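Support request, please re-run this one:
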Amino acid sequence: QVQLVESGGGLVQPGGSLRLSCAASGFIFSSYSMKWYRQAPGKERELVAGIRSGGGDTNYKDSVKGRFTISRDNANNTVYLQMNSLKPEDTAVYYCNARGPYSYWGQGTQVTVSS
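Re-run finished. Output below.
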């Protein structure tokens, strides 16, 4: 059974940091590219960051470049999103996505940036 379980979301003040984790199981994690998406209320889901299966190639949405870092641990089937200098406009539900022969999604974790 395929599972992607996100954790690490929460309420943080502007300028703060959070680290999201996504634990994967039920498929060959090291063969899949991994991505983080987010969806704010009333908006479409958007790609935030991605990392190739080997971990050496990453890409980011322009508005998060220099603030967010995606990484992965293939030995522990986990992908991370380190988020620094958070802004209110980063508020959204963040989703983990595995992209390969198939596409799998997690259930999402809420990130709220507010004072």
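The first strand starts at residue 3 and ends at 7. The chain is about 0% helix and 50% strand.
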